[in-house]
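For the sake of transparency, this paper describes our internal protein records without simplification. The record that follows is passed on verbatim for readers who wish to inspect the format:
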Amino acid sequence: MGYTYVMSDIHGMGALLEEMLEKISFSEDDVLYILGDMIDRGPDPAKVLDIASSCGNIIPLKGNHEDEFVSWYDNEISRMFQKYYYNTYDILMDSERTREKLPEYVSFMKSLPLYKKIKRDGGCFLLAHASTEEILQVWKRKERLIWDTSMVDRKKGIPGYVSIVGHVPTFVIRGFSKAPATIWHSADDRLIVVDCGAAFPELGGRLGCLCLETREEFYVSAGHGME
């Protein structure tokens, strides 16, 4: 039986994703959940999308950046007169291969689920990009799942569950310390933030990955290779 891993906010850092998969010795027996924001900011969103869409044991969720990109792309008027405000579209249009795959990438991002609820080792984990509170509601509002920071602001999770989110880089939670960013845990360990700001190495950001079974944390940084 393999391991279950969680990471978030890769933000186009395709080389870091490859390094992380190598570092954790990711195999077909393992499962990796990516909690959204695979695109924008970094130089290689195509590599991230290619990896995430081609591996059956990688389960990506939708983040606000995927949602915004799809909404912009689907609006022909916006696409014609309003430039996409991050670099993903320009990068994907810059080569023939990724330009031809663009509709496929958009379809993939549209298909992403907003949340997952999983059980491991007798515990129940709630996974979403920004907030997991909506998972337990009858009517689940997309905006809260991909945008809401109130759980991180309160620094509290949900009794009886372990919530894992991204969206807010952990160096922000720790007051913009220049030390290398690490995965953040609330005092009662009911809330875990795995966005370590991979696209912001100048702020100590790096890509973090958490193993649910062992609680081991793994990190790789841009320009520094594996750590």
User: Anything to note?
Assistant: The radius of gyration is 17 Å. The mean pLDDT is 95. The CA atoms of residues 126 and 208 lie 18 Å apart. The chain is about 30% helix and 20% strand.
